[in-house]
Amino acid sequence: MISITEALLNEIREHGVRDYPYECCGLLLGRFRAEGKSVTETYAISNAREESAKRNRFLIEPAELMRGERYARERDLEVVGFYHSHPDSPAVPSQYDLEHAWPTYSYIIVSTTADRAGDLFSWEQEPDRSQFNPEEILKIL
Amino acid sequence: MPVTITIPAPLRQFAGGQSQITVEAKTAGEALDLLTSTHSALRRHLFNEQNALRNFVNVYLNDEDIRHASGPATPLKDGDTIMIVPSIAGGAVIESEVAQTLPELSNEEILRYSRHLIMPEVGMQGQRRLKAASVLMVGTGGLGAPVGMYLAAAGVGRIGIVDFDVVEESNLQRQIIHGTKDLGRRKIESARDRLRDINPHIEIETHETRLTSQNAMQLFRNYDVVVDGTDNFPTRYLVNDACVLSGKPNVYGSIFRFEGQASVFWAEKGACYRCLYPEPPPPGLVPSCAEGGVLGVLPGIVGAIQANETIKIILGAEGLMINRLLLFDAWTMKFREFKLRKDPKCPVCGEQPTITALIDYEEFCGMAAHQAPQPDARLEEISATELNARRLRGDKLQIIDVREPHEFEIARIPGTKLIPLGHVVSRMNEIDPESETIVHCKGGVRSAKAIQALKRAGFPGRLINLKGGITAWSEDVDPRVAKY
């Protein structure tokens, strides 16, 4: 389970629509707790993919991730997951997502079109990397 | 030297749940060795069998990737921080969802398509898409020949061919899917054999039928893309309308003499054929290739363009010829391109379509032509055998050949006078009105027009059309006269 405020979810949606037709991506910063993850901040990242591949690929440069990790640590937070958009396609993980993901983290995916964000789901990878499982989003005020 | 190693969340379970571990080491490599000797489960996540860092794991010493420093030998200072940073990437479902249902390629196929596979624009995914795709070719003539051969070679998984003709000698100058050994065979059979020879990994479906308003929707339903290789207006409008009504892309090509056209008509994304040509030309105004001729290589070029666009549609490529009409002149070797626009008033793909089901296209192409010469009931005709018999009897006849001089050079009926159709009125005085006049051309169409023109111009004599033209003469009277 991941808990997150509606305001932060809206930030993710807006980022997705802003970057359409490309994929947007960013970090979810917060804390790992016994009952699940809680997100307190999002951290937008520039999609490092070359122009032509941005439409259906995103890549977070390790250097940028490291900066995000450091930023989080300064605030006593951690990277608890990532978000990205799927322009014109459903908010479900692709095979490519599965191959490039890590267990433990949350993966929030938002489906986007030119003018609006559609479905938004969170996913968590099975520890043996075999598949993604839907993760419950607990919306908080 | 004591340094701190930070462990990312996914790997903490292999490090006793700790997020930071302090070790004493002189190099980055030594620090990681120490870490993984204490927490052995961590090792296989960080290093591969060759003992190198996995490529989705990055190790940062302070702000620098150790790969950019001296790798594991990078020296450490007191108080340094080592961060293990996982690579994070992902991507939309566009490819993957499809990927799960796409057919696999065998090793033989991988080898066969290797020149495709090594291009990222195609790749395994694209090649599997080609394998999953189906294309219906209407016609296996000049255009259908290269279309079919290239699509088969490219590995399009299922190709349907519609044709009802047989292979004739005069086809072989351009219809390279058929060979001399195929003369007299059904075109679909000859084409099927050739395509199978090119690629045994694909499925070929033959439909020996004329495409009609009754069967078109049924046929189109089973294919992803339709390629128009027809040579006449009724079928071209039929292909267009059936594509619009069934939502299929129509890869269009047409050829005449030295000029070709190509486009992709896809109503969901742009103009259709009717947006470009709302009505057919009057019958007879635009001659067919059989009448006007065609450079053999022209359909090769235009058909290859159609095959190219078909493959791009399947691959989901950008830069399709939607809303673009390509004109090609083989004689001057020039390509020109025109922008097309979807017509909001288009009767079939516009905002308020009036055509919502297939119509009678023969009628549409005949009726729409108001200035078309109506078949003249008073047109007097004679068959080739009858004409021969009358000549043998010694009847007083003059025969006027209204074909072009270069056709006259190919073959002629002995004892005839050549006056090309375009000059027949201005040279009317060369025709003796006192004697009966037989007018002939290649197949009987132009000679009928010549008779009409002469009558309209007030020619007083008796004019008789030779049915079937010189072709009938060659078939029924004198096989020494070449057919062309």
Care to describe what's here?
The complex is a heterodimer of chains A (141) and B (484). Chain A contains 3 helices and 9 strands. Chain A is globular, with a radius of gyration of 14 Å. Chain A has helices at residues 6-19, 62-74, 95-99, and strands at residues 2-5, 25-33, 36-45, 58-60, 78-87, 106-112, 117-125, 132-135, 137-140. In chain A, 23% of the residues lie in helices and 43% in strands. Chain A has a single domain (2-140), classed as Cytidine Deaminase, domain 2, CATH 3.40.140. Chain A is an alpha/beta fold. The model of chain A has no long low-confidence stretch (mean pLDDT 86). The longest helix of chain A has 14 residues, at 6-19. Chain B has 484 residues and is α/β, with parallel strands linked by helices. Chain B has 3 domains: 2-86, Ubiquitin-like (UB roll), CATH 3.10.20; 133-367, NAD(P)-binding Rossmann-like Domain (Rossmann fold, 3-Layer(aba) Sandwich), CATH 3.40.50; 380-476, 3-Layer(aba) Sandwich (Oxidized Rhodanese, domain 1). Helix content of chain B is 34%, strand content 19%. Chain B contains 19 helices and 19 strands. In chain B, the strands form 3 sheets. Chain B has an 8-stranded mixed sheet with strand order 9-8-7-10-11-12-13-14, with helices on both faces. The model of chain B is unreliable at 93-99 and 367-374 (pLDDT under 50). The chains are: A alpha/beta (141), B alpha/beta (484).
TL;DR of this structure?
Chain A is α/β, with parallel strands linked by helices. Helices cover 23% and strands 43% of the residues of chain A. The radius of gyration of chain A is 14 Å and the shape is globular.
